[in-house]
Structure prediction request, 298 residues.
Amino acid sequence: MIDEAVLDFTPASLMLLNGILAIVMFSIAIDLLPRDFKMLAKGPKPLLVGLLSQFIVLPVLTFLLVLVVQPQASVALGLILVAACPGGNISNFITHRAGGNAALSVSMTAFATVGAIILTPLNIAFWGSLYEPSAEILRATAIDPVNIAITVGLMLVLPLVLGVTLNTHRPALTRKLRRPLQWLSMAIFVAFIVLALAANWAQFLAYAGAIAGLVVLHNAIALGGGFATASLARLSPYDRRAVTIETGIQNSGLGLVLIFGFFGGLGGMAVVAAFWGIWHAISGLALASILGRTEAAR
Prediction:
């Protein structure tokens, strides 16, 4: 039974994943300068709409999906946890390919990462407790929101601050580092996920089939929710593309860290996050190839 399955993930592997995510976040941060945040302060609407879509609309839609489908407890909590994470590390690249506002996407990733210190543990605890089967897991696990906040802070916020600081004081260096570091960090991240799945391949195959359709539907709902929120807010097509993609690309790597660090590698949760990590890249790149054929009005 998937709720009782546990994937094997050593403490050393978890530490390695933490380091990889920190490098990925650093590679995003060296695209930012303090003035980027000041510019958004003058016109914050697209950013605020994006964060609303990310941390409120998506968790609500995810909870409604859970109520309708009534999945097993660990699968439901996996979906809720992924929805509670900030935007994924490839969202900026995909937004650029889609012809959307890449600067807005990078800023959304940055602000969502900082906000995740508080909002990710709160969303997991709040929405997870409303679905009784997953609430039982939360009660048995007794997760500490403060520990989750510290984990998120060390992995994501510290590299963000270091990246912005380096770009501010050594722009020539960051120009040389930017592209190679982004490609290298993504390649390492993908390789790590593949190796982690290979070590648990039998269990992954046993459950992935049942979960695949649900993850595909969840990702489609995330993209649709981002598009609808941006449209209702009357954002420009240029900004709307960024919000749509940022909502539909989740930081499943962070999700895996939290699952193995706080939930003991619970099978249903881990398979959901791992499959999300594969699928959102496929759906995001496919969407970018379609949107990128036409220029978005600004």
About this structure: The radius of gyration is 18 Å. The mean pLDDT is 83. The chain has one domain: 2-291.
